[in-house]
Amino acid sequence: MTGAGFMIDLNRCVGCGACVLACRLENSWGSGNPWRRVLPLNLRRHPGGPTYFLSVACHHCEEPACLKACPSAAYEKRADGIVVHRDERCLGCRYCEMACPFGAPRFDPALAIVTKCDFCRSRVNRGERPACVAACPTEALRERAPEPPGGGRASVPGFVDPAGCRPSIRFGVPRSGRRAALLAAAEEALAAAGRRRAARGDV
Amino acid sequence: MPPVRRTVRTVCPRNCYCSCGMLVTVEGGRIVRIEGDPKNPATGGHVCLKGLSYARRISTDQRILTPLRRTRGGTFERVAWEAALTDIAERLDRLRRELGPEAILYYEASGSHGALGRLAVAFWRQFGGCTLTYGDLCWPAGLEATRLTYGLNHHNHPRLTRRSRFILLWGHNPAETNVHQMRLILEAQEAGARVALIDPRATDTSDACNLHVKPRPGTDAALALGLARVIVDANLHDRAFLDRHAAGVEPFLERLREYPADRVAAITGIDAAAIRDLAREYAATKPALLIAGFGLQRHHRAGQTMRAVALLPALTGNVGVEGGGWQYANLASHVLRDPPLPPEPPAGRRAIPISRLGPAVREAVSPRIAGMWIEKGNPASQNPRSGVVKDAIRALDLVVAVDQFHTDTTALAHYVLPAKSMFEEEDLVTAYWHPYLQLRAKIFESPGEVKTETEIWRLLGDRFGFDTGCFPTDTRELLRTMLPGDGAALLEALAEGPVDPSGLGDVAFADGRFPTASGRVEFSSAEAARLWGVDPVPEYAALAEGHESPLAGRFPLQLLTCKTRERIHSQFGNLDWVRDVERPHVLDIHPDDARPRGLREGSRAAVWNERGRIEVTVRVDHGIRPGVVHILEGRCHQLDPEVNLLTGAGVTDMNHGATFYECLVEVARA
User: The pTM is what?
Assistant: First the structure.
């Protein structure tokens, strides 16, 4: 496998949270430093945009900010794409925590080091799927397919790459129902806002 | 040597649609992995977050591990089983001698499904009887409506959902309450099906739907009859099906004359055009599946409402069809026989309605209710009028609660006895969405001083000199006797995976046989009139506590108290793993209702009616129907709002259900 990363189908994800619990059971993290979270977007259901759920963990970026920010070379981008944090090298300095725009590495006070999702590398090494992927009841969460053709988009409303990290996550977009209709409306609004900025000469 | 790992097949016994088959991997006395059992075709290789949280549930230090006795100061102290059971037995015996056996109320709820729960009866029969509850807080009106209409609570195998071309979800929220069904619905939708939802609230399900109409709560019967009227007027009903399989169609068609779309629009608050569109699309797209939830039958008019809704699949010829059908509850797995029980005592039998628990306990005379034994339940927070329930329990001479964790109910008990977990006793578990009977495995010995309920009954029975042969130590042998047919063979099959024991087949009513009085689908039911005193043909009537009632002048908002993914009633919310991911229990209120009351996102609001008052944080919800507010039910944490202080202790028109959703309130800044 190359280019390890997650693919979340926003048409299938109903925000059930099984991925988070499966991750916690597999990786034994505590309340303060979840390796995976489900972010419900627009839960107040404002008609200006879709309500959907981003199940996010470490994005195993192509240009990992954590790796660049680490003074002790605790991070490693494996050939298969997994960004591994080598606990034994971690100073607990939390530089990576500040650098990562996605909040993936988090300081664990009990261990006095940073920890994060390692794509369940011990499971993957055994030929199993990451715990979150295996647990997903609607099969919305998957390993990202190799590209091309791959499929999925690198960005959706509510998710941007602000630091040039090239996160490996891909999104399947809503294809039906209210969610799809509102996604189209939100994307049109975003595009229009972009055109207005360009017309004003904003960066 | 690596530690020994073993994987055991079992089943989740919670009161939930899914009854997930589970594979639990244990290492060093700890659960290290929980997966779905791929041999259960309905739930597949997955469980939900609650199922995954069992790893935490059995390891948390919140578990009650010894008998506890309440002190005068109101705290609990550890007490030995011997002392606890001796004192409980003496006090039960004294109440029996002074007042009679019916002075004791045996209360059980739905906290843990398992056939062995029935053994409690063996104790109470030998006790000379007791007071029991009748009815059910959840779903009975819909069950009875379905039985009266189709003769049987059965529906198509879940996997056939994929064959549907149109799926109508009525008062149902599978994204939050049956995630495995939601997957099937999404698969059908991806294959081209359209999905419509009827629900006053926006939910995680509504986001995925192609169509969503939001009727006023309690008006579903009018909506169903209005849809039927449009279908018949457009000649989209299935005359051939009706001719062959229906009875009472003429009076039903006559009834439909009262429900033109304009009148139905005025009742339900849905545009007449939307009613016509929905009716035509449902009737014209084949096969169409109608899935009803439990919420739309939680009011006085529940049975007649559910009969009206349940007739739509028959009217359109969607019964007995792959990908079609009426889905409410599937009791195909409910085939278990009673264990060997002592005979019923000639006297000493009394029952009170469960939905009126609080008032009924207070009002009981000859004898008064003086003691209560509570298992698998938390009535102090979960039953309607919980304030009255709590006052009634507090006034009792003896309260024994059996539970794994402290609840609002154990706080009122004189004795709390530690309950086993699902992993500590083998049992048989039925389901109500899929047709599978499943075997729950014993994986661990009980921790601490925990005893199974079977053993508690045996030890208590010993003190009374009862025949305790009813409470065997050989659980497997007892389970064998409860299975139909060749119990030993079935038990062996169950060890290998879920079994549909019904012989009913995957397509409900495919043979066109309906075990009703007429042998047909009953559009008019003399039995309904005889048993429940209702009109033989379903009709709409306004709720006593609804949007049209005089009370709405003072309490103009209809409060719904629905379920969501993280809890089964008051279970699971005590666990940090669950609390870390759950959404807070807030008041969902539409901006049009929030604004004039000066409420904003995050405001503290007071919610009250004549029954009670609570405070809760506001979430402004653009998706909920104006005039409707919502707070999640399921209180298992001191921070959760006590919603059942507000709900009414009414009884449904059929089958003794509860009326949680017939609840008017007013809201203001706290």
Answer: 0.97
